[in-house]
Amino acid sequence: MGCNVAIAGVTGAVGQEFLSILSERNFPATSYRMLASSRSAGKKITFQNKEYIIEELTRDSFKGIDIALFSAGASRSKEFASAAVAAGAVVVDNSSAFRMTPDVPLVVPEINPQAIKQHKGIIANPNCSTIIAIVPVWPLHKANKIKRMVVSTYQAASGAGQAAMLELEEQAREVLAGKPVTCKALKYQLAFNLFSHNSAIGPNGYNEEEMKMVKETHKIFDCSDIAITCTCIRVAVLRAHCESINLEFTDPITPEEVRELLNTAPGVTVLDDRASNRFPMPIDATGKDNVFVGRIRQDESIPDNRGINLWVAGDQIRKGAALNAIQIAERLL
Amino acid sequence: MGCNVAIAGVTGAVGQEFLSILSERNFPATSYRMLASSRSAGKKITFQNKEYIIEELTRDSFKGIDIALFSAGASRSKEFASAAVAAGAVVVDNSSAFRMTPDVPLVVPEINPQAIKQHKGIIANPNCSTIIAIVPVWPLHKANKIKRMVVSTYQAASGAGQAAMLELEEQAREVLAGKPVTCKALKYQLAFNLFSHNSAIGPNGYNEEEMKMVKETHKIFDCSDIAITCTCIRVAVLRAHCESINLEFTDPITPEEVRELLNTAPGVTVLDDRASNRFPMPIDATGKDNVFVGRIRQDESIPDNRGINLWVAGDQIRKGAALNAIQIAERLL
C-alpha cells in the first residue's frame, strides 16, 4: 500500500506526539497532511524540516490518503472517519468512537497484531489505561490464565488533554501563591490533590474509564471471562499513568516466574529493585516507549500461590496513545 | 485520674496538631509539658494564650505526668516511654514502636475502645493508613465478615513529616522553574510524580507500611483470618491519604446496605454523589476529623454480590495520628 498519511488532530497532545514518533521511527510516509479544527486551520507547522499549513478537518480532507491517524476526540472520529474510509484510507482511531464496534479491530500490537488484518477500514486504538495495564499482563495471561484482576489507577493530567497539563502547572503556581485555583480543563483542583476520574458514571456506579478497561481488555484478549474491577483516579502527574494491579491466576505462579516472563516480553521494562527501593515512577516512564513494571510480589491473600501484585508506569501520550497507533500503522504497511 | 499532660515531639507535624486538637476539644488538662529534642529545647511556644518553654525530652521529663502523648519517632518512644510509665504516666504512643507488642493495646476508639482498659502503661496508636482504611471498613465487617481486602494507597507527604510537606512545595516550585529537584526529606521527586512508599522492603517483597496495614488490622479487629494485600504509594498531596479498597465479604451485600451502614458509622462521612461525580478528595478531608467514603460500588468481579469497592480519604495528621491519640486519651479520663 501507499503511504500518504493524514493526521487529524495534529495540534493536540497526542497529535504532537504523533509527529515526534513518526520522525524518530523514520516512518516511511510519502506525504503528510496536517488536519485540525477550523480554529487552527491556516497555521503553519514545521515537521522534518518542512513547513506544512494546517488544514481544516472536513469530509473532503482524505483524497489520496492511505493512512489517517485520528486523535481529535470521539465525536470528530464519528463524523469524519467514514469519509476517510470512503476515500480509500485506513483509519487508525485513537478515540473511543469505534473501540467496541464488533467489526472494528481493537489492537495492541504486542498482544493481538493478527486482528489488524480483519479491519474494514477502521482500526481502533485502546484507551490509555487499558494499554498500559495489559501490555505486561498479557504475557502472564498467556502463560497462566488470569481469573480476576483488581486495578487502581494513578492517571496523569495528559489523559484530559494538553490544556489539562498546562492547567495542572498553573494550579500548582496558584496553590503555592495562596491564590484560588483555576478549574477549566480539569473538573477539580488537581495540584496537591487528586480526584476520581470524572468521566460519566453508569448505573452500576462505575465511570466510563473503568468500564473501558474491563470491556477493552476482554475484546483485546479475546477472553471475556476474566473478572475485572477498576477504580480510576486522576493524580497530580503530567503525562505518565501508574496502576496498581492485583492478579489472580488459574494455577500457581511465583514472582520469579513473573519476572522471567516480563524480562522477555515485548514493550516491557522490569524495574524492580527491592534492595534500593527503586520501582517505576511516572518520571521514569515519561517519553519512553515501554511500560515499566515493578513491585512484583506474591499476593499471599490468594491461596495456593495463585496471586501476584504488580505496579506499572507507562507514558500516557506515547504507548497509551500515539506510539500504539503508529505501531499499528507500521504493521499496516 | 489526674490530667497533667506531656507532649513528646511537640514541634513536629503531629505534635503541632496535638495542640490544635487539644484546644478545639477543650481537653481537660490541668497542665501541659512541652517536650522535644535538645535542638528545640529552650524555644518558646504559645498555647491557649499561655507561653511554654520547650524542654528537652529525657528520662526525667515525666515526674507528675498522667498522660504522655508521644510522637517523636519509634526510637525515641523505645528510649523514653518506659521512663514515662515508671513515673506513673499512661503513654499514648503514635509511633510503630509498640504496636505489635502483645500486651500493648492498639486502639482505634471507633473500633476497639474496650482494649484501652487492658493497658499496662502504654497504648499504641495505629499507622495512619491503617486507621483511615479501617474506620469505614469495621462497621461493614461487623455486619458481614470480610474474607479478603485489596488496598492501594495514595499517601500524602505529611506521613513523611513536616519537612517532607515543605519539600513537596519546594520541589513543585523547582519543577515549575525548570530547576533540579531537591530530595532530602523525600527519597525521590514527589512533585508532579509519585513513588512506591520507601519504607524497607521485607523478604516477601512488601514494604513495612504495607505489612503494618495487614498486621495492625488483624490486631485491631481481633481477627487474623482476613486475607489482606496492600500496595502503598506516596503521591503529591500535602496531608490527606486516599485509599482504593476492594472488599470480599462472606455473604452477599449491596452498595445500598454499605451506604446505610456507613451513614450511621462513627467517624465516617459518606460523600458519594454519582450524579455530579463528586467523591472524596484529599482537600475534602484536610483538617477534618472524619474519614470520607465514596465510590461505593458492587464489585461484579466477585460472584454472588459479595464484593464491594470503596474509595476513602482521611486527614493523615489528624485522624491518621493526632486526633486518634487524643480520642484514646479522652477515654482514659
What key phrases describe this protein's structure?
alpha/beta, homodimer, about 325 residues, globular, 6-stranded mixed β-sheet
Structure explained in plain terms:
2 copies of one chain form a homodimer. The first copy, chain A, is globular. Chain A is α/β, with parallel strands linked by helices and 333 residues long. The model of chain A has no long low-confidence stretch (mean pLDDT 97). Chains A and B meet through β9, α4, β10, β11 and β13 of A and β9, α4, β10, β11 and β13 of B.
Low-pLDDT stretches of chain A are: none
Q: Would you tell me the overall average pLDDT of chain A?
A: 97
Percent strand of chain A equals 15-25%
Helix content of chain A: 25-40%
Largest sheet of chain A: 6 strands, parallel
Q: SS-based structural class of chain A?
A: alpha/beta
Largest interface: A-B, 58 and 58 residues
Distance between the termini of chain A: 6 Å
Summarize the entry for a quick read.
The structure is a homodimer of 333-residue chains. Chain A has helices at residues 13-24, 74-86, 128-143, 162-176, 208-221, 255-263, 282-285, 318-332; strands at 4-8, 31-36, 44-47, 50-53, 55-56, 67-70, 90-93, 122-124, 146-154, 194-196, 227-231, 233-235, 240-249, 268-270, 291-298, 307-315.
